[in-house]
Amino acid sequence: MQLNNNVTEFILLGLTQDPFWKKIVFVMFLLLYLGTLLGNLLIIIIVKTSQALKNPMYFFLFYLSLSDTCLSTSIAPRMIADALLKKTTVSFSECMIQVFSSHFFGCLEIFILILMAVDRYVAICKPLHYMTIMSHRVCGVLVAAAWVGSCVHSLAQIFLALSLPFCGPNVIDHYFCDLQPLLKLACSDTYVVNLLLVSNSGAICTVSFVMLLFSYGVILHSLRNHSAEGRKKALSTCVSHIIVVILFFGPCIFIYTRPATTFPMDKMIAVFYTLGTPLLNPLIYTLRNTEVKSAMRKLWSKKLITDDKR
């Protein structure tokens, strides 16, 4: 389908065209990206090396941090580099790859958040059968299904993008390639494509968000039968998960559940879920989780001991 297009590359306008603000954007988002990498890679290392974090919740947390790292990496490095250039262009193929990767890892994060909610439901509402239901094999199958589902979703996005004819102009008023800004450049009626986009990305975001809020509502309601200590621990974990869900799904629902119209605030809202949430997730899970903080201290102590022996 690409051969029928007159456009071979796109121009990304980024967040701003002002030289001074482009330097600010470069510094700010470089720091955000480095913080995202540091925080998520730290969680990945801790979960993999700590024997105390081998239960299913941390198994899913590992993949949440992995998806956060990959989601921000699919967008941030290009955006940071573009902030130093006067004219930023991206080839048609690179644009399609970015559409695929951003939707793949974004959808994977949604599915992982759902799995984390399922895990918390079983742990709190079915504690006696927790390790039987959420066995290592079951968790592995669930994560594999999440990867397959994300791939199917992303392939659907690519199919929609490749079905659009681009005759010019080729200027994308955004800092990365996504279907919403691409729809504005198509030289044909995009009503059906936009309808499919809303029914795909929009439905996944909205339905998943409602399911997650309902599931955590059930979990919180069931806590009334637990002891004060157990209620406090479960409540702390669930509140962390709910914060992550709201921070991630709020911007996604705003972007993907409306007609093919763009607003000036769209780019900043997209920044929040592509860079902001991946940065905040490690902070939320480490600052509110005593087991993760304990594992971090043990890892740091082990490193100090190893350095002293040298």
Q: Could you name the key traits of this structure?
A:
single chain; Rhopdopsin 7-helix transmembrane proteins; transducer; 3% strand; mainly alpha; 310 residues; 74% helix; 3 strands
Domain module count: 1
Major pleated sheet: 3 strands, mixed
Amino- and carboxy-terminal Cα gap: 60 Å
Assembly annotation: single chain
Q: Using the CA coordinates, give the radius of gyration.
A: 21 Å
Q: Report helical residue fraction.
A: over 70%
CATH class: Mainly Alpha
Number of strands: 3
What percentage of the residues does DSSP assign to strands (E)? Answer: under 5%
Order of helices and strands: EHHHEHHHEHHHHH
Give the full name of the CATH homologous superfamily.
Answer: Rhodopsin 7-helix transmembrane proteins
- Strands side by side in the biggest sheet: 2-1-3
- Average pLDDT taken over every residue: 84
Poorly predicted segments: none
Structural class: mainly alpha
Q: Helical stretch count?
A: 11
CATH topology: the name is: Rhopdopsin 7-helix transmembrane proteins
Which architecture per CATH?
Up-down Bundle
Outline, from the CA principal axes?
A: globular
